[in-house]
Specification:
The complex is a heterodimer of chains A (about 80) and B (about 140). Chain A has one domain: Roll (Ubiquitin-like (UB roll)), CATH 3.10.20.30. Chain A is built from two helices and five strands, in the order βαβαβββ. The longest helix of chain A is centred in the middle third of the chain and has 11 residues. The model of chain A has no long low-confidence stretch (mean pLDDT about 95). With about 140 residues, chain B is of the alpha+beta class. Helices cover about 30% and strands about 35% of the residues of chain B. Chain B starts with a strand and ends in a 9-residue tail after the last strand. Classes of the chains: A alpha+beta (about 80), B alpha+beta (about 140). The interface between A and B is medium-sized, with 18 and 27 residues.
């Protein structure tokens, strides 16, 4: 059961806090991570529109497999500038 | 020259950092906190968050792409995070080049790309006490 560190931003940070740890099944993907978070925090439902992910400071897709110690960033639609 | 900072940005210092004696044109774009939202509501300030590592990497990537087509352009891109008041500078792009045409083009390209690709978030705070996260609309290019 790998433990993943999740960092969240903007409206997702308001629900999840700046960071938290979550234990996932072996071979879990980023998609599985998001599903597990939504199960824990139903307020995340509906916030996946436009959501991007990064694993260890690199953008990644939802099918990315996660390993012990990975850090996944949850990036809602951008608003800089 | 590519940074996320939590203090006021000095555009003059960035200009000094990028320009060389070969540069005949220096274009600085400052994005400034405006007193009203797009829907007309009175804004008292903004709060910005960023994924600092990814945002800085996106600035470097944007500059690399611009320099691939305009090798003589020199760029600085700095975005501020935290609490900003109306009139504060939120972002500065400086483009310096031998001639003005490249400098204008590069500055415009850089700020447009930043809005689309940099993991930075903006929360508007209104006079009536409400707050809202504001998303950049893709491809708008003119806001």
């Amino acid at each position: 059961m790998p433990t993943i560190r999740v960092v969240a931003f903007a409206r997702l940070r308001e629900v999840l806090g700046a960071s938290r740890q979550i234990a996932l099944a072996d071979d879990a993907t980023v998609r599985d991570l998001w599903a597990a978070l939504v199960e824990t925090e139903p307020r995340l439902q509906g916030l996946e529109s436009g959501l991007r992910f990064a694993c260890n400071e690199r953008l990644c897709g939802a099918e990315q497999r996660l390993r012990e110690g990975d850090e996944v960033a949850l990036l809602p639609p951008y608003g800089g500038g | 020259m590519f940074a996320i900072v939590d203090e006021p940005i000095d555009p003059r210092a960035l200009e000094a950092a990028v320009r060389t004696p070969a540069c005949g044109g220096v274009v600085s774009f400052c994005g400034v906190v405006r007193e009203s939202a797009d829907d007309g509501r009175a804004v008292i300030g903004l709060r910005y968050e960023a994924h600092a590592g990814l945002a800085r990497a996106s600035f470097v990537e944007i500059a690399d792409e611009i320099q691939a087509t305009m090798p003589e352009v020199r760029l600085a891109i700095v975005h501020r995070i935290g609490e900003l008041a109306v009139g504060d500078i939120a972002v500065v792009v400086v483009a310096a080049a031998p001639h003005r045409s490249e400098a204008f083009t590069a500055a415009r390209s850089a700020i447009d790309a930043l809005k689309e690709r940099a993991p930075i978030w903006k929360e508007e705070r209104y006079r009536d006490g409400a707050r809202a996260w504001i998303e950049n609309r893709c491809g708008e290019g003119n806001r």
